[in-house]
Design brief:
Order of helices and strands: HHHHHHHEEEEHEHEHEHEEH
Strand content: 5-15%
Shape: globular
Number of strands: 9
Helix content: 40-55%
């Protein structure tokens, strides 16, 4: 009895973690894609890994984690799910130990932007999950099944279809759940400020210098003479304090160097913000529609700004290729990727508040923008709570499976008692 309880406790622990981890990755596959790119760059492999591979890995990793978690939750495909769970933890635990020691990236991204853990927190979390995976793999025959073999394939197939559909939908449109600070309804200017009474985090810059083959760390207060050779500089937290949800948002004029972000965020009127973090890889298939939105904003007296981290040469190539007449401003690359998961993507702002966000595949056309924004639904703020959005998405997963479970219970033979198989029964 103790073995059964232990095996099923570990099974549910793994199921919850894997379902959550796979789900948040599938909701935001581009976020996982960017994190994998960070890993590739940190390990010096950018030159020989094709650009599409990290995105493929993002989708497959989300599907694998979610399916393993769901299979463990329902007690189906026990040999496959327990084996994959152990394999994932055997691979991930040493990797996260290296990340914790070397710190090549700030966080592992295992739970996307939903829950951010430090590298050491991730490592110890994986140690616990590795032990649980080993227990479940050893005692997989003691896992209690919640469905019979007759409907096991239905649970498996629907789980697979659901998670891939969720990933592809989020790639083509925008994440159905937005865990990032630039979500609809957020006042960007307020999200960048420290509330009264709160003490902001204090940082210090540490300089590593070398002399006679010996390296030492210095601060600005004790910076040495010119006989020392500069090696590198690191910014570290001196004292932890309140950190605003949005750390950085700038709109630098490429010609004058002026930051117009404050003026744009303080504008009481409507403004369109086109975000394309890298123009050389941006999708130009809907550029005519973007140009029409720009013409609409000019006709109605609305602001229209384009943000990119590309060079001036990249901007000129984009304008020559697309006939764009709007002006580009420079933004920080990571910030632009965080603002909208589309390249390009479009935002509608009013008085610093994000009213709408569109992917490149969902841009509003002349049938939507047929009047002034204050008279149109698109110009009004309409938000959805995270709990409501999560319930709506999970209902698509849970409702069909509950229907399958009900059918399974209804047509299950009355003589069938426990769902747990005997050790002699072949495993699936």
């Amino acid at each position: 009895m103790a073995k059964v309880a232990c095996a099923n406790f570990c099974r549910f622990l793994l199921a919850v973690v894997f379902v959550f981890s796979g789900f948040v990755k599938a909701v935001d596959p581009l976020g996982t894609f960017y994190k994998i790119q960070d890993y590739v760059a940190a390990f010096g492999m950018s030159g020989w890994i094709p650009a599409h591979v990290p995105l493929l890995m993002s989708v497959l990793l989300a599907a694998t984690e979610f399916c393993v978690g769901a299979f463990l939750l329902f007690g189906v495909r026990r040999r496959i799910s327990t084996g994959l769970a152990l394999l994932l933890m055997v691979c991930m635990t040493p990797l996260t130990f290296y990340l914790a020691v070397a710190n090549p990236v700030s966080d592992c991204g295992c739970f996307g932007d939903a829950v951010v853990l430090t590298n050491w927190q991730t490592f110890w979390k994986n140690v616990v999950l590795l032990v649980a995976a080993a227990v479940v793999f050893k005692w997989k025959r003691l896992i209690v099944r919640f469905v019979t073999l007759k409907v096991e394939w239905m649970v498996s197939m629907y789980t697979l279809v659901f998670i891939f559909a969720l990933s592809f939908y989020s790639l083509r449109h925008l994440p159905v759940l937005d865990f990032r600070p630039f979500k609809v309804g957020v006042n960007i200017k307020e999200a960048m400020t420290v509330p009264p009474g709160e003490k902001p985090t204090e940082y210090e810059t540490v300089f590593v210098l070398e002399k006679d083959g010996q390296r030492k760390e210095f601060t600005l207060e004790n910076y040495p003479d010119s006989t020392w050779t500069f090696v590198k500089a690191d910014t570290r937290i001196r004292q932890k304090g309140y950190e605003p949800p949005i750390q950085e948002f700038s709109m630098i004029d490429m010609e004058t160097g002026e930051d117009i972000a404050d003026a744009v965020l303080s504008d009481p009127g409507y403004s369109f913000l086109l975000v394309a973090y890298q123009l050389d890889v941006a999708d130009d298939s809907n550029i005519d529609l973007i140009n029409e939105i720009y013409d609409y904003s000019v006709d109605r007296g609305y602001g229209f700004y384009a943000l990119t981290s590309s060079s001036m040469e990249g901007v000129e190539r984009w304008c020559d290729m697309t006939g764009a007449e709007y002006k580009f401003y420079r933004g920080e690359d990571v910030t632009l990727k965080t603002i909208v998961r589309s390249n390009p993507g479009l935002l509608l702002l009013k008085d610093g508040v994000i009213l709408k966000k569109w992917s490149d595949n969902d841009l509003p056309d002349e049938y939507v923008l047929h009047d002034s924004l204050d008279k149109l639904p698109v110009g009004q703020l309409k938000t959805e709570t995270m709990a409501h959005a999560l319930a709506r998405v999970m209902l698509w997963f849970a409702a069909p499976l509950l229907f399958i479970l009900c059918l399974d219970l209804l047509f299950r033979p009355k003589k069938q008692g426990k769902l747990t198989k005997s050790p002699s029964t072949p495993q699936t």
